[in-house]
Amino acid sequence: MHEFPRYAAPSPAAVADLVRRNPFALVVSGGSPPVATHTPVILPGPSLDGAVLLGHMARANPQWRSFGAEVLVVFSGPHGYVSPTAYGYTPAVPTWNYAAVHVTGQVEVITDRAGTLAVVEETVRVAESWRDPPWDMTTSRTTFESLIDGVVAFRVHVRTVHSNFKLSQDMPPDVRARVRADLPREVAGLMPD
After folding, report:
1. How far is residue 107's CA from residue 110's CA, in Å, rounded to a whole number?
2. pLDDT in tens, 9-31
3. How far are the Cα atoms of 22, 49, 53 from residue 64, in angstroms, in the given order?
4. Which terminus of the chain is less hemmed in, N or C, by CB atoms within 10 Å?
5. pTM for the structure as a whole
């Protein structure tokens, strides 16, 4: 990902928060052609610095067999089309406001059933933590165990993190306010004042 300095994330914590809140990632591995899978990838810790991401995909998906030394994991955050009607001046051109994080890292396939089950359960625990009350998976553990042979879990040992938080930072405050009012709440909430 090319990072634009003017669209830098407000903080490393904001980058980690975007990854945590948008775990349905795109995992890309090399090859000719490259292969990509949309799948949940979670950040179990508080920071991406030295982190190990956890993910899983269907064993029937051949991508895991072709994992090289590294993978690219793309996390897309909120985004929205910015119409020139929000600017309040012409001539103008439309754009797109968005936040995205690209992580590269060494991929490690988890080969044991217990490790795979632990990744699946941690993924569910993280996803359920957003619900009130969260679903208790205890009574479904036997079902999880019966499905685990159809799943491949993996770890991504984070090596690089790149991000862009393109949120109209290059606009004057009054224009930013109009753009914020015109965008979906999720995107507007990321925009600086």
Report:
1. 10
2. 999 999 999 999 999 999 999 87
3. 22, 25, 15
4. C
5. 0.94
User: Closest Cα to residue 60, out of 177, 133, 152, 173?
Assistant: 152
**Residue ranges covered by each domain of the chain:** 5-112+151-184
Contact present, 92 and 153 (Cβ < 8 Å): no
Pairing between strand 52-58 and 70-82? unpaired
- Residue for token digits 């980690």? 16
Residue 73 identity (one-letter amino acid): V
CATH 2.30.110.10 fits 5-112+151-184, yes or no: yes
Alpha carbon distance 45, 20 (integer Å): 9
Over residues 84-96, the pLDDT tens digits come to 999 999 999 999 9
For residue 121, the surrounding DSSP H or E stretch is helix 113-128
Residue type, 143: T
